[in-house]
Amino acid sequence: MGKLDNRVAIVTGAAQGIGKASADKLSEEGATVVTADIQEGTTKQVDVSSEEQVKRLVDETVAEHGKLDVLVNSAAIVPFTPWDDIDFGEWRRIMAVNLDGTFLTNHYAQKAMRENGYGRIVNIASNVVVAGTPNLAHYVASKGGVFAFTRALARELGQYGITVNAVAPGLTETEGVLASPHAESFEFVQMLQCIPRRGLAVDIAPSVAFLASEEAGWVTGQLLVADGGMSHN
After folding, report:
1. What is the pTM of this model?
2. Which of the following is catalytic: 108, 118, 139, 160?
3. Confidence class of residue 184 from pLDDT cuts 50, 70 and 90?
């Protein structure tokens, strides 16, 4: 028996990294998982900044599987842009995916969940919201927005049996991070962590799976920081 037997889940950003690890974990726990990403290699190819595509993702999932119980919203752009290089176009590009995408996925998912009086929404934030990491001002702002929105939405949806929480990973070894200048930060970050090793995507997935389960029914509006203790103070 898995924690998520007979549950239907959508996981965005599921082509790689934390999204893929989360989708794999939910599947291991018994869920039927619909994976979505702008990249190929998932069940549905979806741009989360497109209202039409997000609505279709939810509608098709409910049509194919009869319901929607869980949303894990992991789709995001992680840039590396010094402050002096961030123009408004770059700001909007990050906000469109990271913040607009959070609104759209949460908005349409909760509509489907309310019909059954049950739902688990897990948004992926980041420990940058407590660390104020440099070269990421627009990303930090977007992820701060994800957390603040998560808290507000939890207030709105609790009456319908829907919980809304966020997981905040630290620097994690994913394809995206390894292909960016952030890859050079692992040694420094490990010195700040309580657990002195690289964080992996599979380290984050169990926190997501817990918040996506029935067991977490009394937990909502929370930020679960999974970063090896880097921001434990």
Report:
1. 0.96
2. 139
3. confident
pLDDT at position 232 over 80: no
118 is catalytic: no
d(CA 229, CA 156): 31
What is the enclosing helix (H) or strand (E) of 156? helix 137-157
| Closest-CA residue to 172 (of 207, 130, 126) | 126
DSSP states along 103-149: HHHHHHHHHHHHTTT-EEEEEE--THHHH--TT-HHHHHHHHHHHHH
Provide the 3-class DSSP secondary structure of residue 51.
Answer: helix
How wide is the angle at C-alpha 183 spanned by C-alphas 77 and 11, nearest 5°?
35
Q: Which residue in the block uniquely carries the two structure tokens 């990491």?
A: 133
- Six-digit token pair at 164? 């809304």
